[in-house]
UniProtKB/TrEMBL annotation:
Protein name: Cofilin
InterPro entries attached to this UniProt entry: ADF-H (IPR002108), ADF-H/Gelsolin-like_dom_sf (IPR029006), ADF/Cofilin (IPR017904)
Gene Ontology molecular functions: actin binding
SMART domains: ADF
Family (UniProt): Belongs to the actin-binding proteins ADF family.
The organism of origin for this protein: Candida verbasci
Subcellular location(s) per record: Cytoplasm, Cytoskeleton; Nucleus matrix
SUPFAM superfamilies linked: Actin depolymerizing proteins
UniProt GO cellular component terms: actin cytoskeleton; cell periphery; cytoplasm; nuclear matrix
UniProt entry keywords in alphabetical sequence: Actin-binding, Cytoplasm, Cytoskeleton, Nucleus
Function noted in UniProt: Controls reversibly actin polymerization and depolymerization in a pH-sensitive manner. It has the ability to bind G- and F-actin in a 1:1 ratio of cofilin to actin. Binding to F-actin is regulated by tropomyosin. It is the major component of intranuclear and cytoplasmic actin rods. Required for accumulation of actin at the cell division site via depolymerizing actin at the cell ends. In association with myosin II has a role in the assembly of the contractile ring via severing actin filaments. Involved in the maintenance of the contractile ring once formed.
Record-linked CDD domains: ADF_cofilin_like
Length: 143
């Protein structure tokens, strides 16, 4: 497998740890810098509303994202929280961008310890709350 040679910026790891350990953010959007050499933090948010996260995903551009996904456990066990990694690669994004994001994903994904689920989104139905909830909660009993 060819390596894309894309580095993960220190700020990206710091932001991820702030989300994971410090619960400082609800979600983080990552993108490639202009020269496509580094994965950087594009934005962070403390907004608890999942729709606010979806609104940040552009229709024609690729992104990576990490979301601290909270959901209720059945049987009165209360809330559970899992970190979900998103690769957002809409069908309408330029082919070249999709290729670069696909080949660079592993660099970022490997650097982020503690991610519970991976979601690949090519359209909004694949990143809808219920779709993610099903994937995240399905894995809840197996770990």
């Amino acid at each position: 497998m060819s390596r894309s040679g894309v580095a993960v910026a220190d700020e990206s790891l710091t932001a991820f740890n702030d989300l994971k350990l410090g619960k400082k953010y609800k979600f983080i959007l990552f993108s490639l810098n202009d020269s496509k050499t580094e994965i950087i933090v594009e934005s962070t948010s403390t907004d608890q509303d999942y729709d606010s996260f979806l609104e940040k995903l552009p229709e024609n551009e690729c992104k990576y994202a990490v979301y601290d996904f909270e959901y209720e456990i059945g049987g009165g066990e209360g809330k559970r929280s899992k970190i979900v990694f998103f690769t957002w690669s809409p069908d309408t994004a330029p082919v070249r961008a999709k290729m670069v994001y696909a080949s660079s994903k592993d660099s970022l994904r490997r650097a982020l310890n503690g991610v519970a689920a991976d979601i690949q989104g090519t359209d909004f139905s694949e990143v809808a709350y219920d779709t993610v909830l099903e994937k995240v909660s399905r894995g809840a009993g197996s770990h």
